[in-house]
Amino acid sequence: MKRIRRFGLKKAIREKNLLFGISAGAMIQLQDYHITPDDDYADFAWQTGLGLLSFDLECHFTGNRRQREHLERALEEKGLETWALYEDGGLLVTDGIVTAMGRVERHSANRTES
């Protein structure tokens, strides 16, 4: 997001009909997304993305306790439907309809689906 802002690309990206993203490239397409502490990030944090999608993601999901705790925290704080993506999982969003591919978990404030 820092590079997108620095180079003034947000408007151009929002106007495109097709976007693809892996990991952070997927997360920045969201309105708001959380960062779970790991080797790269020391603290839990909320970030603002491009605002193209209105759910949350937990990328590189392994199902460990730390990820689940922070996923639950994110749900409590923002109430956004959250998709946990294992390394072999992904999402396809077409006209607002989300199709899960591979190994994913869908979390909402009151339920979890695999």
Can you characterise this structure?
The chain is of the alpha+beta class and about 110 residues long. The chain contains four helices and six strands; from the N terminus they run αααβββαβββ. The chain has helices at about 1-5, 10-15, 25, 65-80; strands at about 30-35, 45-50, 55-60, 80-95, 95-110, 110-114. A hairpin with a 2-residue loop joins β5 and β6. It is globular and about 40 Å long.
Q: What is the number of helical segments per DSSP (H or I, 4+ residues)? A: 4
Order of helices and strands: HHHEEEHEEE
**Poorly predicted ranges:** none
Gross morphology is globular
The helix content is 25-40%
Number of strands: 6
Biggest sheet details: 4 strands, mixed
* Adjacency order of strands in the biggest sheet: 3-4-5-6
Q: What's the overall average pLDDT, rounded?
A: 89
Which structural class do you get from the secondary structure elements?
Answer: alpha+beta
Based on CA atoms alone, the radius of gyration comes out at: 14 Å
Q: In oligomeric terms, what are we looking at?
A: single chain
Give the terminus-to-terminus CA distance: 30 Å
Proportion of residues in extended strands: 25-35%
Which features would summarize this protein structure in a list?
alpha+beta, four-stranded mixed beta sheet, 4 helices
Q: Could you give a quick summary of the protein structure above?
A:
By secondary structure, the protein is α+β, with helices and mostly antiparallel strands.
